[in-house]
Design a protein that fits this description.
Elements: H1 3-16, E1 35-36, E2 44-45, E3 53-57, H2 58-63, H3 69-73, E4 79-83, E5 89-93, E6 101-105, E7 108-109, E8 127-134, H4 138-141, E9 148-154, E10 161-169, E11 171-181, E12 185-199, E13 210-226, E14 229-247, E15 258-280, E16 285-301, E17 306-322, E18 332-346, E19 351-365, E20 370-381, E21 385-397, E22 403-414, H5 418-422, E23 436-448, E24 454-466, E25 469-471, E26 482-484, E27 488-503, E28 506-518, E29 531-541, E30 546-556, E31 558-562, E32 571-575, E33 578-588, E34 593-600, E35 619-627
Parallel strand pairs: 6-9
Antiparallel strand pairs: 1-2, 3-8, 4-5, 6-7, 8-9, 10-11, 10-35, 11-12, 12-13, 13-14, 14-15, 15-16, 16-17, 17-18, 18-19, 19-20, 20-21, 21-22, 22-23, 23-24, 24-27, 25-26, 27-28, 28-29, 29-30, 30-33, 31-32, 33-34, 34-35
Length: 628
């Protein structure tokens, strides 16, 4: 049975299922202490982490009414996310290209190869938290992590139980989860289905709405085979269909750039993981060995139908040694990493390459509050030979007080992607392209509010990208459509994050990014807002049984290319500033059942994130969740 049909059955069953009795302990999301698991080759606490990072928990995302990863990321500093219709989302970190940001699901590359991952309708139903690591992360994740990493961490149940959730309004959605947990075993199933009615992307022509439909299934488990030895696995499958419009043959403005069309794309995703973790020498030595296989298949049904598939198979080894105690508690550790990665791509052309990597990380926590992280990595790529990247981070809690300084520097690389080298779908590749290299430095000051009521963090960053790869619609002198730019692309700015528990019932939050992103010729880079501000207020109501949340997002000084002038005559224009307000609320009927409601774009404001593309107007949803 196709996955989409299976998920449709799940939705129908969920809508018809009566309230279930409370048969076991509550499996509601657990709010964890802020710990960044992907900050290196071993866990690191946030207040000891030198590089810029943000963590948002599943509980916070739920209170804000976010339903997809797209919606969740918009609230974070250092991120710009623009859509070309609801199905295509471009994520940029600190002004980098979409291909410079790596998307992980439980630490595994979600893209299934060397292409950027399209967030599309990726759901939040089984997400425990999202970790955003800003700045180059190539030491830890290799090529494609040149500007940063988003790691989507799914829930790992710690007790037997489950939940079922349904939602209806501007479409329909359902999610179902069940876990079995014993002293030595965890087995967990999660399924979700979401159908968003969408909107007319080609605004102004009165066409049909372009929606998105996604179903996902996940099965994971782990077994404590012996003291000091744990074995685990994870299987994820997803299918997504998204409808989109076509470009017009003779546009004369943004409103006529697109025309209504019955086009759609089908995307299938799979991620399989097997892993083993071992601990020895009284916990001083920990080892992890993992096999990963991720694959994305995309079929387009338009004027030029096609099929592409990207796949990544990896074997990864991680070894951490505690130099002065158990690795989990040691003040000094050293970690070694070895990877073997095979990337394959097929479509109009086929491409394959292999990367072998070795890396080392040293970490030290000093009694004066100074924490140090140093990393070095060497990649040997079958096409581009050897490349070395490095990273350094410092965190200093000043005199055990409320102030913490953090700073980092490092380099990141991105090898040319398969389609840039081999071409396809009318474009001619360039086999002589050089890897892009990003150099970064940032410094920040964090202030912890009294009594642990929140924090204020301000970070300045500067990044320099060399050999940026660009596309040209007109053939270049060498006959290809891709080339490395001469000179350096410059990006710098400021990131501000604020969280303040004003009272036990009211929490205020803010995220602001100032970004100055320039091409080598000094012109402003497109689709990178100079100013982006997010404000949030969450209030506990009804004696703690309810929550009410309001989010405001303001974007100004963003530019995009007007394509209707023709190749070689493109014009860059400034998009109008816009403000979008969302509301969300929940109410606990009892300890097991919760009602939810949310409204996006409350004031139904029209706006543009991408030139020529419409955006979602007001949309409302209501839902119910049962836990057991």
């Amino acid at each position: 049975m196709p996955l989409s049909r299976t998920c449709s059955t799940l939705l129908a069953a969920a809508l018809c299922l009566p309230a279930l009795p409370a048969a076991a302990q509550d499996s509601a999301p657990i709010v964890l202490d802020t710990v960044i698991l992907t900050g290196g080759f071993s866990p690191v606490e946030a207040d000891a982490y030198g590089r810029a990072a943000t963590v948002i928990t599943g509980r916070e995302l739920e209170q804000r009414g976010a339903a997809t990863v797209q919606e969740g990321l918009r609230a974070l500093p250092g991120v710009s996310l623009v859509t070309s219709g609801g199905s295509l989302a471009e994520l940029r970190i600190r002004g980098g290209e979409t291909r410079h940001a790596m998307i992980l699901i439980d630490g595994v590359n979600a893209a299934g190869g060397d292409q950027p991952y399209n967030l599309g309708g990726l759901d939040l139903s089984d997400v425990e938290r999202i970790e955003l690591l800003r700045g180059p992360q190539s030491v830890y994740y290799g090529s494609a992590a040149a500007a940063g990493v988003v790691n989507i961490i799914t829930r790992k149940a710690d007790r037997t139980g489950g939940h079922i959730r349904t939602e209806a309004g501007h479409g329909a959605a359902a999610a179902l989860g069940q876990s079995l947990v014993t002293e030595r075993l965890r087995l967990q199933f999660d399924g979700s289905y979401r159908e968003d009615d969408g909107y007319d992307v080609s605004y102004g022509d009165g066409g049909d709405d372009d929606g998105i439909r996604r179903g996902a299934l996940a099965l994971s488990g782990e077994w404590k085979a012996a003291d000091g030895l744990t074995l685990g696995f994870s299987i994820r499958r997803a299918e997504e269909r998204a409808w989109f419009d076509a470009t017009s043959g003779a546009p004369d403005s943004a409103r006529t750039y697109l025309r209504d069309a019955p086009f759609w794309s089908d995307r299938a995703e799979r991620i399989d993981t097997l892993w083993a973790e071992a601990s020895s020498a009284s916990g001083r030595l920990t080892q992890r060995l993992a096999w990963e296989d991720s694959r994305v298949t995309l079929k387009t049904h338009d004027d030029y139908p096609g099929r592409t598939e990207t796949r990544r198979r990896a074997i990864r080894s991680r070894t951490t040694l505690g130099l002065d105690g158990a690795a989990a508690d040691a003040s000094r550790t050293i970690a070694l990493a070895f990877d073997r990665i095979e990337d394959d791509a097929s479509g109009s052309t086929a491409y394959a390459r292999t990367t072998r990597s070795a890396a080392v990380e040293y970490r030290a926590a000093h009694e004066n509050g100074l924490d140090v992280q140093l990393g070095l990595r060497h990649d040997d790529n079958s096409d581009f030979g050897g490349k070395t990247t490095w990273a350094a981070g410092l965190s200093w809690r000043i005199a055990a007080g409320p102030l913490r300084l953090h700073a980092s520097a490092g380099t990141g690389i991105l090898n040319p992607q398969s389609y840039q080298l081999a071409g396809g779908y009318g474009a001619v590749g360039n086999p002589h392209l050089r890897p892009e290299e990003n150099r970064s430095i940032d410094m920040g000051l964090e202030y912890s509010l009294p009594d642990g009521r929140g924090l204020i963090d301000v970070t300045w960053f500067r990044e320099r990208l060399a050999d940026a790869i660009v596309y040209s619609g007109a053939p270049l002198p060498d006959g290809s459509n891709y080339r490395n730019l001469r000179g350096t692309s410059r990006r710098q700015g400021v990131e501000i994050a604020v969280r303040h528990e004003l009272t036990p019932a009211l929490t205020l939050g803010a995220a602001y990014t100032y970004l100055d992103a320039r091409n080598p010729d000094g012109t402003a880079a497109v689709r990178r807002p100079r100013h982006e501000l997010g404000l949030n207020a969450t209030m506990q109501t009804f004696a703690g049984r309810g929550w009410l949340s309001a989010d405001l997002r303001h974007v100004t000084d963003s530019r995009d290319t007007e394509w209707w002038h023709g190749w070689g005559n493109e014009k860059v224009s400034r998009l109008p500033a816009f403000t979008v307000v969302n509301l969300a609320a929940s109410y606990d009927l009892d300890e097991r059942m919760r009602l939810t409601a949310r409204v996006t774009n409350l004031f139904d404001k029209p706006y543009q994130e991408t030139w020529g593309y419409g955006t979602q107007g007001r949309a409302a949803w209501m839902g119910i969740e049962q836990r057991w």
